[in-house]
Amino acid sequence: MKILNFGSVNIDYVYGVPHFVKPAETVASQSYEVFMGGKGCNQSVALAKAGATVFHAGNIGNDGLWIKNQLDAWGVDTRFLSITDGPTGHAIIQVVPEGQNAIIIHGGANRAVTSLQIQEVLSHFGQGDILLLQNEINQIPEIIEAASAKGMTIFFNPAPMTSDVLQFPLDKVDVFIINEVEGQELTGQTFPDQILKEMNEHFPNAAVLLTLGEKGAIYTHQIARFEVEAKKVTAIDTTAAGDTFIGYFVAFWAIGKNLKQCLDFATQASAICVTRKGGSVSIPSKEEVLA
Questions:
Q1: Cβ(80)–Cβ(222) under 8 Å?
Q2: Whole-angstrom distance between the N-terminal and C-terminal Cα of the chain?
Q3: Taking the complete model, does pTM exceed 0.90, yes or no?
Q4: Sheet containing strand 153-156, strands side by side
Q5: Is 164 an active-site residue?
Q6: Which residues pair with 175 in a beta bridge?
Q7: Which of 46, 164, 174, 177 has the highest CB neighbour number within 10 Å of its CB?
Q8: Catalytic, out of 129, 237, 243, 264
Q9: Kindly report the CA angle at 83 between 80 and 87, in degrees rounded to 5?
Q10: Is the CA virtual torsion 89, 95, 99, 102 positive or negative?
Q11: Dihedrals φ, ψ of 187, to 5°?
Q12: Residue range 259-287: average pLDDT?
């Protein structure tokens, strides 16, 4: 079983601010740092640090070559990461003292995925392999259709959530990984149990993993239901917490761990992540999580 993450790579420009910028306001940053990031990149790093063999497909510009080198160093297989004209995708991130963040994303090379590229990448994968997707690249419907036709198991994290996600071939998704905001936009419901009920009714064959931040997470599949509480820690930066959770969950799911173990390891990993600054660099190793 191989794991393919077809996703974004970003350069994160992180500004420490006393509060999120309001309309017509100018705020002086208290700090400035540059990190590698993007939901796809972060999730590939989490998968690799969790001990999984993960292939990352996507695009970067020449300004992102240092990210490719770092992914290689962390054990991510980047043979399907292409260099394109134009800039690497990037994010401008505000982080307040409480650890919460607000993010603006420019797609850049992440929006340059082509049909030919999809065909070439997926030609190396087949029945039973895992595809992990987020919503920071273009051509996602085509990727889902092509992967489904090959019999791949599709994990979809529709983040950042946009209205066009509702037009995607979501009936071909095997596992949805969503937070409360994404769940509300997908279902029109507000409370976790209502979100899960609607998701299970609309996609009866799919599992749903609903992450609830400091309230933990719930996994449902047909009549099965598993819950996990979040670890109590002091958050410094929540930038890659969700991506860490997803990467660790998929990594342990792929090697056949039971759902309770998958949820426990993912929760522990994300709890460590929020105690550190940055995106990919804040993701803990498997050894740290197990300890």
A1: no
A2: 27
A3: yes
A4: 81-83, 54-60, 3-6, 130-133, 153-156, 175-179, 207-211, 217-221, 224-228
A5: no
A6: 155, 207
A7: 46
A8: 243
A9: 130
A10: negative
A11: -115, -20
A12: 91
